[in-house]
Design brief:
Distance between the termini: 37 Å
Radius of gyration: 23 Å
Cofactor: heme b
Order of helices and strands: HHEHEHEHEHEHHHEEEHEH
Structural class: alpha+beta
Bound molecules: ligand L6N33NVT, fe (ii) ion
Catalytic activity: heme b + 2 H(+) = protoporphyrin IX + Fe(2+)
Domain Dyp-type peroxidase N-terminal: 103-247
Shape: globular
Strand content: 15-25%
Helix content: 10-25%
Function: Involved in the recovery of exogenous heme iron. Extracts iron from heme while preserving the protoporphyrin ring intact.
Protein name: Deferrochelatase
């Protein structure tokens, strides 16, 4: 899996953007590019005025930091008009692009903060209102991802921060199409997922007409985007469910490393890589694929998977490692080597037993054990306090991306349902399947080809 630990990971050595390209925000770095930032003589404490971009205000932020550092003052005002602002760190300046072949938030490096939220169209709202909403959402996403204010009534929550690798991704659920009279445009890939015997799904926290995934490397930037998206919904749609997640912060590890989940396992090692010959075919609907409006899009399966951590943490380390088939310390297969060494499925120990058990999670999820089925996993961990019984309400917001769920998530989950050693330590509590169209071209909004096609 790609580097998940450093801000640099957002720009280099990670799944590429398939034409999207990622680069630092323009004009965010210093007062030199922000000639008219407020000064000590004119402190700007007000919320950003309409039309003044947050990028412009970033110069103020830098200058503020410099003043505090230099004089240890309590005011936080820039020391002198001539002083240069301190540049944003690369973490704040990192920027994902809104326009591109694919939407952002699919192949980008994991961010440290995430929100996933589903909306239902309001009674009486149809295609016209949905089109207007997607237009509003796209305008907001484009601005916020560039580090600018929301188009209307900006809350100032992200003020002083750069784009921080913010991504905002939009999808359509099965029910969207009947609500908008677009049944003929509904892809068969959106047919409801089959029921699995281990499912313990809460319908009120599953599915939804519309789905938005927000990720950023700053919690305030992510929350700011969430509020803007929710406010944009206005009277057209209301929140059905919302879940909040996190990953390790960029720079927390001494070198770039694969993420860990709340069970402590290295999680993400064997994700498909963009350099794999079949990466695009596995993850994205082809440019000439069906339906036409889903060209370059992808399907997101979202599962809220509770981890039964009290039970898991009672397991001794060797038993934990046999559940997955990999070492907890390094993520290396139990058959030997390092994290990236190919797993030897045939290797037996002195006792003659397979070192990677037949029901080990990392054995039975492999594409070669599932007729080639593969998906790009891009999860967030979650922790929502404790349940009534005192156990942690914590686990994985498992989000996986594929060109077709019937050749990705479904066969693998069927296999897991039949006998995964991990299954007694987890519980699937909510589920969603969403069609995520390709990226919007300049001047277009996400989903325009569906809503105006
Ligand atoms: C249906 C798909 C999958 C679900 C649901 C799932 C849940 C889940 N997984 C872990 C932890 C790990 N998974 C690992 C590998 C792995 N898991 C899946 C699929 C699902 N996991 C796949 C396709 C793979 C890769 C298989 C391969 O090609 O080798 C690993 C090993 C490291 C890695 O490759 O990422 C861990 C660890 C948890 C905790 C979990 C539910 C909470
Ligand atoms: Fe897994």
């Amino acid at each position: 899996m790609a580097d998940q630990s450093t801000p640099r990971a957002s720009c280099e050595g990670v799944p590429s953007q398939q034409g999207r390209g990622r680069r630092p925000a323009e004009g965010t770095k210093s007062a030199g590019s922000v000639p008219d930032a407020p000064t000590a003589a004119e402190p700007d404490r007000s919320a950003p005025a309409a039309g003044i971009s947050r990028r412009r205000l970033l110069g103020t932020a830098g200058a503020t930091g410099l003043a505090l550092g230099a004089v240890g003052g309590a005011t936080g005002y820039a020391a002198a008009p001539s002083e240069k602002a301190t540049p944003l760190t690369s973490l704040g300046a990192d920027r994902a692009m809104f326009h591109g072949k694919h939407q952002s938030g699919i192949t980008d490096a994991l961010q440290s903060r995430g929100h996933v939220v589903a909306f239902d169209l309001a009674p009486g709202a149809g295609r016209k209102e949905a089109a207007a909403l997607l237009r509003r959402w796209s305008a907001t996403a484009e601005r916020l991802m560039a580090g600018e204010n929301a188009p209307h009534d900006d809350t100032a929550v992200a003020r002083d921060a750069g784009p921080s690798s913010l991504t905002i991704t939009f999808g359509f659920g099965h029910s969207f199409f009947s609500r908008t009279g677009l049944q003929k445009q509904r892809p068969s890939a959106l047919d409801p997922l089959p029921a699995f015997s281990s499912d313990r799904l809460d319908a009120s926290r599953s599915n939804g007409d519309l789905w938005v995934q927000i990720g950023a490397n700053d919690a305030l930037v992510a929350f700011h985007a969430l509020r803007a998206i929710q406010k944009d919904a206005g009277s057209a749609a209301r929140v059905r469910w919302q879940m909040n997640g996190f990953n390790r912060s960029p720079g927390a590890t001494a070198r770039p490393m694969t993420a860990r989940n709340l069970m402590g396992q290295v999680d993400g090692t064997n994700n498909p890589k963009p350099e794999d010959a079949d990466f695009d075919r596995r993850v994205f609907v082809p440019a000439k694929g069906e339906p036409v409006w889903m060209a370059n899009g992808s399907y997101a399966v979202v599962r809220r998977i509770r981890m039964l951590l009290d039970d898991w943490e009672k397991l001794a380390l060797p038993a934990q490692e046999e559940v997955i088939g990999r070492r907890k310390s390094t993520g290396a297969p139990l058959s030997g080597g390092t994290e990236t060494t190919e797993m030897d499925l045939e290797k037996a120990g002195r006792d003659g037993k397979l070192v990677v058990p037949l029901n080990a999670h990392a054995r039975i999820t492999r594409p070669d054990q599932n007729g080639g089925a593969a998906m790009l996993r891009r999860p967030f961990s979650y922790h929502d306090g404790n349940a009534a019984d005192g156990t942690p309400d914590a686990g994985l917001l498992f989000i996986c991306w594929q060109a077709d769920p019937l050749r990705g998530f479904v066969p693998v989950q069927r296999k897991l349902d039949r006998g995964d050693a991990l299954s007694q330590y987890i519980r699937h509590e909510a589920s969603g399947l969403f069609a995520v169209p390709g990226g919007a071209a300049k001047g277009e909004y996400v989903g325009q080809r569906l809503l105006e096609g």
